[in-house]
Amino acid sequence: MSDFFEQQIMEALKGVIDPDKGRNIVELGMVEGLHVKEGHVSFAIVVEPQRGARMEPLRKEAEQAVHGLPGVLSATVVLTAERTQPQSQPEEGPLLPGVAAIVAVASGKGGVGKSTTAANLALGLAAKGLKVGLLDADIYGPSMPRMMGIGQEPGSSDGVRLDPVERHGIKVMSIGFFVEEENPIIWRGPMVQSALIQMMRDVNWGTLDVLVVDMPPGTGDVQLTMAQQVPLTGAVIVSTPQDIALADARKGLNMFRKVDVPVLGLIENMSYFLCPHCDGRSEIFGHGGAREEARVLGMDFLGEVPLHIDIRTTSDGGHPIVASKPEGEHAGIYRDIADRVWAKAQEIMKKKAASAPRIVIH
Question: Are 339 and 128 in contact (CB under 8 A)?
């Protein structure tokens, strides 16, 4: 990035005034992490934690100011909270205090249908009568706005925290609500971690039985942030049957084990292909590899989901199959998986409750 282009951006941002302090955000040192790549601009605006969600108009103004510059194809801005207390003291109360169970849906690599699985798992849990939230933690590739058929940004009923968008009976939050679908998100690790924590701390999730978290593929910053900052009940690993996908799934499993997050089990997605014309079955990626992998690794096998056009089209259309065709065969598969996941989660929660220290007064 040329120094001249950076100067142009900072000059444009001098026109954005902090309404509380009456000075521009550049002069106040609020702009951090400025990054430009091939016309795509990203940066963070640092605010105090207590100002949080009510600074959203400032974020939008800064985004618009930069987006209007010649040569800028996209501008992505995130609010991030500065630490106002010593490192040894907690910055806030516990994240997600009203959530009973948090289940991460992960994969060792992309392209295995993890997000489709996460959405339908969340809907399957809701079909059991549970209060369910769905957090899209795939910061670089958010897909839940499209998959859940959500086109609007979240509002704020209290002026302090954002309200998740409710769709198909569950509460949904995604960074994709705040950026154009075709715009790439080009952030360094600290910005990603800050955005993820904001979507938990600064969102009014309320009381939930379970929050399903759609993780990004691989084993990077987001996975570590979730494992270190959030009391995950457990993780679900999604893989296709082929050997290369299973090898990557094994890495994901080992990562969660190293950070002491229980793995609830393994799902084999695209387990076999069902022809929509003749109902013929073809095992394109092989079959049964995930079940065998689960046996070898000593973990539960949660179920197999076929490769079928209805699963793909309903997700692309914003009406996942558990919501749009709840009585169908494929919705039944996801509901069965949801039953097994919830049973495992309850088992883990009971063990944690039993092992918690008790105060006995004689």
Answer: yes
Helix axes 114-126, 309-316, angle to 10 degrees: 80
What residues pair up with 172 in beta bridges, in sequence order?
134, 165
Angle at 306 between CA 252 and CA 109, to 5 degrees: 25
Model pTM score: 0.75
Name the DSSP letter for residue 211.
E
Counting beta carbons within 10 angstroms of the beta carbon of residue 94, is it exposed (0 to 12), middle (13 to 18) or buried (19 or more)?
Answer: exposed
Inter-residue contact 272 to 257 (CB < 8 Å): no
- Locate the DSSP E strands across 189-308: 208-214, 234-239, 263-268, 273-274, 281-282, 301-304
CA distances from 102 to 39, 178, 290, 345 (A): 38, 24, 23, 9
Query: Which two tokens mark 202?
Result: 């600064």
Angle at which helices 189-201 and 221-229 pack, to 10 degrees?
40
H-run or E-run covering 119: helix 114-126
List CB contacts of 82: < 8 A, sequence separation 6 or more.
46, 47, 48, 49
Q: Which residue, among 49, 52, 76, 73, has the nearest Cα to 62 in the 3D structure?
A: 76
Give the pLDDT confidence score for residue 161 in this predicted structure: 82
- Residue 359 pLDDT level (bands cut at 50, 70, 90): low
- CA 241/CA 274 separation, integer angstroms: 15
CB 223 within 8 A of CB 255: yes
pLDDT tens, position by position, 9-63 = 999 999 999 999 999 999 999 998 787 877 778 888 888 877 766 788 898 899 8
Residue with tokens 């990603």: 192
pLDDT of residue 16: 95
List 282's β-bridge partners, or say none: 273
